[in-house]
Amino acid sequence: MRNHQDHGHGHDGHEHGHDGHGHDGHGHDGHGHGGHGHGHDGHGHGRGRWARIRHRVAHVVTPHSHQAADKVDSAMETSAEGMRTLWISLGVLALTAALQAAVVVVSGSVALLGDTVHNAADALTAVPLGVAFVLGRRAATRRFTYGYGRAEDLAGIVIVLTIAASAALAGWAAVDRLLDPRQVHLLPAVAAAAVVGFIGNEWVARYRIRTGRRIGSAALVADGLHARTDGLTSLAVLLGAGGAALGWRLADPVVGLFITAAIALVLKDAAREVFRRLMDAVEPALVDAAAAALLGVPGVVEVGELRMRWIGHRLRAEVAIVVDGDLSVRAAHEVAVEAEHALLHAVPRLTAALVHADPSATTGDPDPHAALAHHAHA
Question: Residue 192 in contact with residue 57, Cβ under 8 Å?
């Protein structure tokens, strides 16, 4: 069965594409066939004044108004939450780097200098993410019809490249120190600065990862993983200082090599997550949940092609449902509306659903997609 969502018509049905603005698949502003007015702000359908989504695993639904001026845009909320996380983590990392820099001046520790520079670089990764969150707030245009959510995925690429550069720098520093061991002064101060670096980075890592997963931002999760690698680098400095205190001058570079391997593993995970977003991958469990919700809608005979994709930290869905071929256009439209409604409730962070209704086939009926057959790709 084919799914032709790009066509503004349904077979005894209707198509919807709500993106928080009350527009249906035909371009009407809040009006469908049969007098339906919709304005889904990323979730359920109701009659209160406000609507918002706060998801982790389960979903929470609050009624909302049909008046556009009264609605809270959940995409704006999640972007604002991401920006708040970036600013707070930037402040924590800047303070951490400043404290470490003071110790570098008095100790002459090259290892701590590298860790300080690493922490400063991690703080600066907030810049591409901040730009992406700001761009993501912009409304869709005739050229960028899906909006600017993809900027967040591009920021994820920058962060992955930054992690790769960090791994290369850590490896180079470790090898250089093996070839040219150096004396470190004020080892207790260096150890204390390393602990501060680890605590600061681990706190930022947990904060970014938690927020990124809550709002569905792969780039913010990747940035949190990057902060975690910086915390591991701080531990390397601490262990190296301990080894140096015991008289083993090669302790720092040896531990540095192990940390380089750990950073490479984190790089692999971050790169995989960002790559999957760029390739429109979604968790199979989300697709299963969407299909189950659709099959539970009265009037849905079968679920045809079902597609979902992330655009930044928001999900979009396109689906073809099969309905009774004897239904009127109005009745098929009502089934499509209920199908969309069920999707918005069942799938966390889903902000748009395009539903196409096909008539069920009986023996002798013509193919409803026959006119499009010559456009099919092999």
Answer: no
